């Protein structure tokens, strides 16, 4: 349950302790902004988005731990394991001109050698860097390193993203 007004900022992967704290696998680089105290988030539970207000946020062993006001008991939050955590799609000021939000990338057309090849559907982050997740015309997904050597033409806006013509990259 997502729409253009909300974006996924994490996935609830487990509980932590008995006081309703949740272990979050973040899908954002802006945890301090998105998970700030008193910030309203939404738990995508089935077909509903349950509004919750951040009570506490801390990092523990590579995971973000969150608790929410009014949900300070494991029995109230345990059912949310595996659910997405959403935030209002509010712009966050860019620190660097080379930083992009996934929402700015998703849906952008991809061309290779001037030929349409598909569209960007997401970004995956790995220790070695970010990868554009591209749905090519046959419906399959391809990963392309989000680096200057592979992405030739990229600017903010709705323009097509030009990927280097390399055998096997998008074919």
State the strand order across the main sheet. 1-2-5-4-3-6
What is the number of helices? 3
Regions with little confidence, pLDDT below 50 for 5+ residues: none
Element-level helix/strand string: EEHEEEHEHEEEEEE
Strand content: over 45%
Q: Going by CATH, what is the homologous superfamily of the largest domain? A: RimM
Number of strands: 12
The CATH class of the largest domain is Mainly Beta
Please tag this protein with its features:
12 strands, 7% helix, six-stranded antiparallel barrel, Elongation Factor Tu (Ef-tu), domain 3, mainly beta, 3 helices, single chain, 171 residues, SH3 type barrels, six-stranded mixed β-sheet
How are the SSEs placed, and which strands pair?
Elements: E1 6-16, E2 21-26, H1 31-34, E3 40-45, E4 48-60, E5 63-68, H2 74-77, E6 84-88, H3 102-105, E7 109-112, E8 115-126, E9 129-136, E10 141-145, E11 151-153, E12 161-163
Parallel strand pairs: 7-12
Antiparallel strand pairs: 1-2, 1-6, 2-5, 3-4, 3-6, 4-5, 7-8, 8-9, 9-10, 11-12
Folded structure, characterized:
The chain is mostly beta strands. The chain folds into two domains: 83 residues, RimM (Elongation Factor Tu (Ef-tu), domain 3, Beta Barrel), CATH 2.40.30; 62 residues, SH3 type barrels (Roll). The protein is 7% helix and 48% strand. It has three helices and twelve strands. The strands form two sheets. A six-stranded antiparallel β-barrel has the order 1-2-5-4-3-6. Strand 3 and strand 4 form a beta hairpin. The longest helix is centred in the N-terminal third of the chain and has 4 residues. The chain is elongated.
């Amino acid at each position: 349950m997502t729409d253009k007004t909300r974006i996924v900022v994490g996935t609830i992967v487990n509980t932590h302790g008995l006081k309703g704290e949740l272990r979050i696998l973040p899908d954002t680089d802006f945890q301090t902004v998105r998970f700030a105290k008193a910030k309203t988030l939404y738990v995508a539970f089935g077909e509903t988005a349950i509004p919750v207000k951040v009570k506490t946020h801390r990092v523990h062993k590579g995971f973000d731990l969150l608790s929410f006001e009014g949900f300070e008991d494991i029995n109230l939050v345990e059912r949310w394991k595996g659910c997405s955590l959403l935030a209002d799609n509010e712009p966050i000021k860019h620190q660097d001109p080379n930083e992009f939000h996934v929402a700015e990338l998703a849906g952008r057309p991809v061309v290779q050698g001037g030929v349409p090849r598909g569209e960007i559907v997401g970004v995956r982050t790995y220790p070695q860097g970010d990868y554009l997740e591209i749905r090519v015309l046959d419906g399959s997904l391809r990963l392309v390193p989000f680096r200057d050597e592979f992405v030739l033409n990229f600017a903010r806006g709705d323009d097509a993203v030009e990927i280097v013509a390399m055998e096997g990259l998008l074919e």
